[in-house]
Amino acid sequence: xxxxxxxxxxxxxxxxxxxxxxxxxxxxxxxxxxxISLTRTACALDCAHCGRRYLEHMIPxxxxxxxxxxxPSLLISGGCDPQGRVVVTAxxxxxxxxxxxxxxxxxxxxxxxxxxLEMILPYVDVVSxxxxxxxxxxxxxxxxxxxxxxxxxxxxxLRRHVTVVPHITIGLRGGTLGHERxxxxxxxxxxxxxxxxxxFIPTPGTRYxxxxxxxxxEVTDLLIEARLRFPQTPLALGCMRxxxxxxxxxxxxxxxxxxxxxxxxxxxxxxxxxxLGLAVERRTECCVMAVGAGG
Length: 295
Known about the structure:
The chain is α/β, with parallel strands linked by helices. It has helices at residues 7-20, 64-67, 90-99, 114-120, 135-142, 148-159, 180-190, 216-229, 244-256, 267-275, 288-291, and strands spanning 24-28, 33-37, 59-60, 73-77, 104-108, 126-130, 164-170, 195-199, 235-237, 261-263, 279-283.
């Protein structure tokens, strides 16, 4: 873990984990969760970090029945409308109804309203909600004319009806931190049952393609702070984060900081977990299927 500092605070985070959780860590390899787009590659937004690129790798809902195979779970996502809501139609729901039996569904819904929630509720097991804690970041990244209050309202609406797992992307604004601690402040006020952290990846073809991932020291600080501020909340390091040397440094930090789950962990994190006496639980689905159940 060369270059990582904060040893005293890492020790504090580790002790907090040990006081509130059993000595078990989850490693998730989500190849069994099929990822579905309701809109193919269409999206009314042109987000600076995505630029519709992530939609290109999803299965179109129209061909899902032939392509999801034996997947026990589905991630339902897609492009947004100009208000930041993932587009859902009656036709989408009919297609989902055909493939839902025997499967759990994790949804990305964006800034859902009452009408949208009423439509999808029979098909939802858990919702992944991207929480942004700063108005300027919302405008700069998503181009939306809305505010943090709109995100909080949507989050509260969803939580009244379904299990919701908030996601915070570290360095969302082109690798620069700014909204993350404000998002933690919000969760301290409104509550959360589990929390997933992602880390900004510079993606070719996007407006942030030439940026760098956030500094490791800043990410380390934030992961430690999350464990100290939410001592009883399951924390996960999600699938969207840089690979290579960055991941080799980051993943052991997440173990030391007392995280409960890591998606596709680097080998060094696996070895460290075992050295620290953690029993390893391996799953092959989206991490939200575990943290959303409190694990």
